[in-house]
Specification:
Blueprint lengths: L1 H41 L8 H11 L2 H26 L3 H13 L1 H10 L3 H20 L8 H24 L1
Length: about 170
């Protein structure tokens, strides 16, 4: 889970960089479209019916402040993912709580997206995030589940004693 969160942080960071770069290059992109689209139309291509062209034109029409806001939100989400990933990687209790809360916050948005239209990606994303939340809640005994922190610490202590016993038996 930690590796997935850190990988997600990299992707989000790259997306933030791409939006910021796009924000600065909008003039040259618009000039290229203005110059080249008529050539493609004259050659018989139906560029006005291409959804990619429509999406690009919508992005070009966005205010610079909107693109700056999107960049900031993507960067903030990337930082959130880094904090979560580091906490999980270091196996800190706060990292587990952080992961559950951060993942749960976005579940309503994922359900909303799924209600707009069912796609394999949306179903997979929702399923993975629900599974991650349930795994952390149950296995790490978060929020008092299955005895809470006390039971979790006793379980960890028991695992450490078993490891010591196994090591002693192997050495003997």
């Amino acid at each position: 889970l930690a590796v997935e969160r850190l990988g997600r942080a990299v992707v989000l960071g790259l997306a933030a960089w791409a939006v910021w770069t796009f924000r600065g290059a909008r003039g040259s992109i618009q000039a290229t479209l203005d110059r080249d689209l008529p050539v493609f139309r004259a050659a018989g291509f139906k560029v006005d019916q291409m959804s990619a062209i429509h999406e690009l034109e919508k992005a070009l029409a966005a205010k610079p402040s909107t693109l700056a806001l999107i960049t900031c939100l993507l960067a903030a989400y990337a930082v959130l993912q880094v904090v979560e990933g580091v906490g999980l990687w270091l196996m800190k209790r706060w990292g587990e709580y952080f992961a559950v809360v951060a993942t749960s916050v976005f579940l309503p948005l994922e359900i909303h997206d799924l209600l707009k239209g069912v796609t394999t990606t949306r179903v997979a994303t929702l399923t993975i995030n629900i599974a991650a939340v349930l795994y952390l809640l149950i296995s790490k005994r978060l929020f008092g589940i299955r005895g809470g922190r006390k039971a979790y610490e006793e379980e960890r202590q028991g695992d450490q004693l078993l490891d010591l016993e196994r090591a002693a038996m192997t050495a003997a």
